[in-house]
Amino acid sequence: MFVYYENYGALHGMPNAHPAPNETLLAGYSPSVEPLSVATQASARLLIWPDHWREPAEWQPFLGLYLQAFTADDDVALLLRYDPESDAAPAEHLAQSIEALLAKLDIDAGEMPEMLIVDDPLGTTELPSLFTAATHYLRCDGQVTDDIHAERAARCGLYVMRAESPAALRFAVLGETSRV
Question: Is residue 35 classed as helix, strand or coil in its secondary structure?
Fold first, then answer.
C-alpha cells in the first residue's frame, strides 16, 4: 500500500488543519528552485534522507525496498542524501553497509538499479536544490527529521510517499507492479 501526500496536513489525515511548520525551516523551498546537478539521466529520481547512517536498521529497510522494486533496466535512480558535515558514520561504512545489503538480498551489483550518494556539503540556501533534483521523496517513517523533509519535498513539488512493499513502490513510481 502506498499513499501520495499533498501537504503536511494530509500527512496526518487533516487537510488544512495542522500546526504551522516553522516557516524559517521551509523558506526557499519551491518547484522553481534550480535543481542540484546530479549524475543521472533517469526520469524518476527518488530521494531518501535517513537520520542515522550509523544505524543500518534505520535506513536499510527503505534501501531494500528500492533494490527489490527496480532493476538496472528501469529508468529510475535513487538519491541517497549523506551529509558529510553532520552524519556521524564515515562514507566507507556506508559503502560497506550497502554491499552487505546487496549480498543479503542476493542482488548482483550489475543488476542493481541506479543509486547515487549525494554527499556534497550543502548550505541552508542550497538544500532546496537537492529536493528539486528529485521527483519523489520516500518517507523514512520513524525518523526525527522525516516530517520536515516531507514538507520540504512537497513544497518543491515532489510526490511524497510511503511504500510498504517493493511492488507498491514500483507502482507508485513507474505505474507497474512487477519487475521484468
Answer: coil
